[in-house]
Amino acid sequence: MEESAPNHHKGHLGALLIRAGWRPETLARRVNAALSEQGSSRRVHEKTPYKWIKNGETPHGEVPDLVVQLLSTVLDSALSFEEVWGVRARRPETTLRVDDSMDLPWDSSGLLSLLGGPVPTRRTILALSGVALTGHAWRALQHPAPTLTAVAAEQGRVTPPLLAMVESLVAHAQQLDTQNGGAARAFVADQFAAVARLLRHASYPAGTGSRLAAALAQLAQTSGFMAFDAHHDGEAQRWYLLALRAAHAAQDPALSASILALMSNQAADRGFGLDALQLASAAQEAAATAGPAVRALVTARSGLAHAAAGDLTGFHRMRDATLELGDSNADNPLPRWASYLDPVELDAITGRGLVMIAERLPVRRKQLLGQATLLLHARAHTPGTAPPQRSALRHGAWLSLAHLRNGDADIAVDTARRALDRLPHVASVRSVALLHRLQEELTATGPRYPAPVRQLLAELGRLPRRRDGGVV
């Protein structure tokens, strides 16, 4: 039961809901989804917002701030607490809009001003959708890239050895992410802050400025994927938008394309198929001048957007284009942030998409799942000491699901156990969530399980879960 404090300014919330086209029940569902996303077990009854509107009441805890952020997003307007609730906030807001303070020019002053603010923190960051998200992608493509130079003296000049050390740290952060997942999130965020300080407070010529911006973009991209993999979608989106700004300033369209493709994959994973398609289109436009290997990666990731939208024709078109690009001469050398890329990884991404689209097309389900198991097999069976371990864990979880849904429970169990063996060394919340989905689907097969299934279910049951029932 929600407890509320009365206020004396009725009408604000009700009028905003009318503008948004939301019923009070819709608001309650959106609030509950946001609470679930941040790991809270609290829920708002669908009829409770009627009381807020009728009696002019303000709920307690984090809910008022969530309502402000949700309405700000849907109305594409930076609403204050008082504009929504009719009273001043009794304490500092606990939530942050993903693109807070990002309404800045796409030039060097805009980037440096943005870097003067805090990086994502423990405040709840609500994920965006629709034009509030995709608008940033198109603006990144429309504005000319700036030239970064600085003559600040607070931290001296960025010398070649210092720049080499920065780029070495970026490479190490990417290797940690590829092999061990999100266990080093705090470390990577610290490196981002250090490079941001150099951009703002050191002196450097234009060429060095571009390399610093590229390093910053890669650190933000890595932090974004780590946050996404940990189920912190709002935090991941903010990192990706920071990465996009920095890649734009670095005049690196291939890196921008990679970031946009990751944003598209996140939207697909969250179930926002139209956002995923928009972001995939922007990613492909950004990748137009990149080498064939990068374009193959972006195209394969774009296939996931078509899978989320249930578009089999578009999905096959992306697969054919990926194969054609893969037959071209490889980029020489590959960008360091794409060093893990090979035909096995491209196949695994496509295999993941086949499992996704099979759920939407039951008539083609068995055929699609059969194709998926072939494409996922090699990455899921990556040796335990070889990179990329997180990809091997994640695609192993997808492969186990594909086998189970295709009627091969024994192979699904063996595949899941191989994935479980990687967990002591790899942090990947989304992969564990897939294994819990496997647990639920295995449990639904019936009460009489063979011994290997019983043993696997016991192992999966020991994996921790979030307070809301999701996986930690």
Structure write-up:
The protein is mainly α and 472 residues long. 63% of the residues lie in helices and 3% in strands. The protein has helices at 12-20, 24-37, 48-55, 63-74, 81-85, 108-115, 131-142, 160-180, 185-201, 206-229, 233-249, 253-270, 273-286, 292-308, 312-326, 343-358, 365-380, 389-405, 409-420, 429-443, 451-461; strands spanning 4-6, 57-59, 95-97, 124-126, 150-151, 203-204. α6 (108-115) links the parallel β3 (95-97) and β4. It starts with a strand and ends in an 11-residue tail after the last helix.
Topology:
Blueprint lengths: L3 E3 L5 H9 L3 H14 L10 H8 L1 E3 L3 H12 L6 H5 L9 E3 L10 H8 L8 E3 L4 H12 L7 E2 L8 H21 L4 H17 L1 E2 L1 H24 L3 H17 L3 H18 L2 H14 L5 H17 L3 H15 L16 H16 L6 H16 L8 H17 L3 H12 L8 H15 L7 H11 L11
Parallel strand pairs: 3-4
Antiparallel strand pairs: 1-2, 5-6
Helix pairs in contact: 2-4, 7-11, 7-13, 8-9, 8-10, 9-10, 10-11, 10-12, 11-12, 12-13, 12-14, 13-14, 14-15, 14-16, 15-16, 16-17, 16-18, 17-18, 18-19, 18-20, 20-21
Summarize the structure in short.
With 472 residues, the chain is mainly alpha-helical.
List low-pLDDT spans. 1-10, 466-472
Mean pLDDT: 88
Shape: globular
Quaternary form: single chain
Main structural class = mainly alpha
Report, as a whole number of angstroms, the end-to-end distance: 26 Å
Order of helices and strands: EHHHEHHEHEHEHHEHHHHHHHHHHHH
Number of DSSP-assigned strands: 6
Radius of gyration: 23 Å
Major pleated sheet:
2 strands, antiparallel
Which percent range fits the helix content?
Answer: 55-70%
